[in-house]
């Protein structure tokens, strides 16, 4: 980061209110000295929080994340310092609050032109903005009947005609972008852009509710489910293990349709192969077992997010593969 004209290294810091405070390291980033503050809700259920977080995560922007369980007093308290925001995500920097996902996306894109958050081609960029705006304003049947739920997979869900109308429109938009601009990668415009941020929780709805889709959509949905950033987000939600009443349906649920996690499990005691946490560098206190080997972490959350999807965490994979 740039302090008094020189660049120094910073890391991405996740900081919660209500759970034990912890720091985790993803990749080290070299960025201008300034860290955004981002308020989010439940990682398992809050689709807008996922979008807010991906805006930083996918474009390597520095952020300090504050999270609180939705509908709780802690949630209201967290948002007090983000006034006038009432919902998540909300971002602040330099005393400025930005309280809607489109506004956050546009503010970041304007402030970080080198991050290429929108497609560079003018026609592609216009289409990306159309897709984002339409997502933000529409698909109410899908959003109402199929709320984001990253802990469930319902193979027997029966979508209404209104939901199918929404998914048909979404598939048409995805196909258009993929066909015209998607040749260079798996994302809507080839490289990952803000449009993919907005459709990430739409892709997970197709996955959770097993909604019918064509091959182009299926490949695009799988790109999201396999995306390491998304996998880390989902693993953190599994580790947080908030269960909101009213979000789960009374239907049989089968394993999550994303990549199968390595068979790690939490264990009570060490000793572990590593003496220091792969994320914070602190001495280990909490343990997991994988392939008959024991690894340690500096708190239960770091351990549990690794149990949830070990392969998504580079720091852990480095010691596991050593
Ligand atoms: N239009 C807003 C929507 C934000 C939103 O609805 N957030 C939900 C979580 S997904 C929320 O904060 N819910 C908490 C509540 O309703 O109290 C945006 O684009 O950011």
CATH class of the largest domain: Alpha Beta
CA-CA gap between termini: 31 Å
Helical percentage = 40-55%
Small molecules held by this entry: glutathione
Shape: globular
> With helices defined by DSSP (H or I, 4 residues minimum), what is the helix count?
11
Oligomeric category: single chain
Domain count: the total is 3
Q: Please state the CA-atom Rg, rounded to the nearest Å.
A: 20 Å
Strand order of the largest sheet: 4-7-6-8-9
Q: What CATH architecture of the largest domain do you see? A: 3-Layer(aba) Sandwich
Summarize the structure.
With 322 residues, the protein is of the alpha+beta class. It is built from eleven helices and twelve strands.
Please tell me about this protein's structure.
This protein is α+β, with helices and mostly antiparallel strands. The chain has three domains: 114 residues, Glutaredoxin, CATH 3.40.30; 111 residues, Glutathione S-transferase Yfyf (Class Pi), Chain A, domain 2 (Up-down Bundle), CATH 1.20.1050; 62 residues. Helix content is 40%, strand content 12%. The strands form four sheets. A five-stranded mixed sheet has the order 4-7-6-8-9, with helices on both faces. Strands 10-11-12 form a three-stranded antiparallel sheet. Helix 1 packs parallel to helix 3 and helix 1 packs across helix 7. The longest helix is centred in the middle third of the chain and has 21 residues. The chain is globular, with a radius of gyration of 20 Å. The N terminus is likely disordered. The chain binds glutathione.
